[in-house]
Amino acid sequence: MIRIISGTKKNLQLAVAPNVTRPLTDRIKASIFDLIREFIPNNFVLDIFAGSGAFGLECLSRGALHADFVENDATAIQIIFQNIQKAKFQLSSNVYETNAEQFLKSTKNRYRLVFLDPPFNLLEKSSYLPLVAKIIEPNALVILRIPVKENWEDPRALALTQVYQKKYGESLVAFYRN
């Protein structure tokens, strides 16, 4: 089990789909949220490859207006719905059961904060940042979590500038701004 670490739903336990997701540890989550607190209140959040929905739910707990969750695994989708219901965020969230690339190409929504946490074994991660760049508001923040082993500098992501990165065990978390 994981939990929401702050806000109106602090310490609420969340379910995780077994063998489907790599949930953020409290340490990584606390570090990220200490840095992004200004991007959360009254904004729209997108949680891509949502897994359990923990990132978007943490944002809602901390004052985000709305969170969209994108996930294509049926088991994870059930867990996301369960966690949203448990947190009572049904009116401030949408869940999209679809491929992330398809969602990014078709959505008309715009976001101020995007969390992109593709499966570590997904080979074509580099195609997502240019797509995300097209659906974010001015001065938005995009957070990407990838394996430390990956050397990822995508020249197609010129619309975004990396402004921060930090290693956490086998994860690298990078922040991008437009």
Secondary-structure map with pairings?
Blueprint: E1 2-3, E2 13-14, H1 26-36, E3 44-48, H2 54-61, E4 66-71, H3 74-87, E5 93-97, H4 100-106, E6 111-116, H5 128-133, E7 136-147, E8 161-168, E9 171-177
Parallel strand pairs: 3-4, 3-6, 4-5, 6-7
Antiparallel strand pairs: 1-2, 7-9, 8-9
3D architecture notes:
There is one protein chain. This protein has 178 residues and is α/β, with parallel strands linked by helices. The chain is built from five helices and nine strands. The strands form two sheets. It has a seven-stranded mixed beta sheet with strand order 5-4-3-6-7-9-8. Strands 1-2 form a two-stranded antiparallel ribbon. The protein has helices spanning 26-36, 54-61, 74-87, 100-106, 128-133; strands at residues 2-3, 13-14, 44-48, 66-71, 93-97, 111-116, 136-147, 161-168, 171-177. It has one domain: Rossmann fold (3-Layer(aba) Sandwich), CATH 3.40.50. The model has no long low-confidence stretch (mean pLDDT 89).
